Amino acid sequence: MPRATLHRGRRASEKLQDMAFAQYIGIFMILVVGQALADFKVSTQDLKVHVGDRKSFELILTEPLSKNASVQINVQHALLVSTDPKGISINENETNWTIHVEGLSAGHSIVSINVTPSDIADFSQAFVRVTIEKSDALYHVSSVVGWIYFLAWSVSFYPQIYSNYKRKSVVGLNFDYLSLNLVGFIMYALFNCGLYWIPEVEFQYFSRYPKGLNPVQVNDIFFALHATFATVITIVQCFIYETGSQRVSTTARIIHGIFAIFISICLLLAIIQTIEWLQFLYYCSYVKLSITLIKYVPQAFYNYKRKSTVGWSIGNIFLDFTGGILSMLQMILNAYNYDDWDSIFGDPTKFGLGFFSVAFDIFFIIQHYVLYRDRKDYVGIPGSDYGESQENASTSDLS
């Protein structure tokens, strides 16, 4: 056989092999893509049901499976929730099933699925967060209470702003308290805005808590940004109106320096990817919590040194006190309605901070109406040069 003919035959054989290999790859890719398109979904990932009642959700398969499979319905807390059915056998061309959920006892649980064989479809997003409540009326009362304390806290900044404007003076308002408040609200705004608006941070959060909810809501963002804005307005007043001789104290500057170094180190670690940005925002929130614990102390001590609350708006305190009491009331209502007392006693941070703020509000009220109620003028502090211009200011005008 001529050498040229043999060469052409070999090339034709190799070409046929390449074509066959390409066909195998094509079939494999079709199968992979077909499997990738087969996902289990649910009609809702949040379901609320009363104790003793039944509700349902739809389990949906986006594409028919190429072979039979079985689905096991898993309940995180079997004493709280039961499902019907508890398992499903899937035949070809079936894509939709109704799952009934019955509330057995108040609380929170997660209903999820397991699929066998596990590699036939993606079921990672096929879960439902179930909230079992004792009373729908309590739910609505809790919502109303939440909006009232949100409004009370939002409005609480303005009595002090108005008092400063009316007096054309910020004497009596402690600058340490004001500076700590600003830093705290900036940290709070960073945490809320970052977790709500930055996709990378939100992705990191759901990577940690795959079946959780984003804890930041729109009203949280509004409050944080509004509180920062109102505090900035108050600080601007400090540059416009009479201040006396008061300045931010050395102690407060040291505290600010510590916070600044801490946040700078955390920011650097996030930039070089040693920690996640989500963790950086958590560190910002820790600074906010720390400030909440200490920010009232300078103002309380300042009132004590002056033996007067003149210049420190009692309206601000009453609104803050109202917000704090209603915040704790809402936590108690929710704990009872969902039988979730661990939210208070298991993790007492939020409740403890609310209680701590209310305790200081009560102390300020005692200072204003009991300890220093007869003080109608400013009492000079050694080393200060204010007092003359405000000598005749009355307590009623400054509240």
From TrEMBL:
Catalytic reaction list: L-cystine(out) + H(+)(out) = L-cystine(in) + H(+)(in)
Cell location: Lysosome membrane; Melanosome membrane
Main localization, broad class: membrane
GO cellular component terms given for this protein: lysosomal membrane
Topological category with respect to the lipid bilayer: Multi-pass membrane protein
Keywords from the named record: Glycoprotein, Lysosome, Membrane, Protein transport, Repeat, Signal, Symport, Transmembrane, Transmembrane helix, Transport
Function in brief: Cystine/H(+) symporter that mediates export of cystine, the oxidized dimer of cysteine, from lysosomes. Plays an important role in melanin synthesis by catalyzing cystine export from melanosomes, possibly by inhibiting pheomelanin synthesis. In addition to cystine export, also acts as a positive regulator of mTORC1 signaling in kidney proximal tubular cells, via interactions with components of the v-ATPase and Ragulator complexes. Also involved in small GTPase-regulated vesicle trafficking and lysosomal localization of LAMP2A, independently of cystine transporter activity.
Name listed for the protein in its UniProt record: Cystinosin
Species of provenance: Ceratina calcarata
Organism classification: Eukaryota, Metazoa, Ecdysozoa, Arthropoda, Hexapoda
The gene coding this protein: LOC108627154
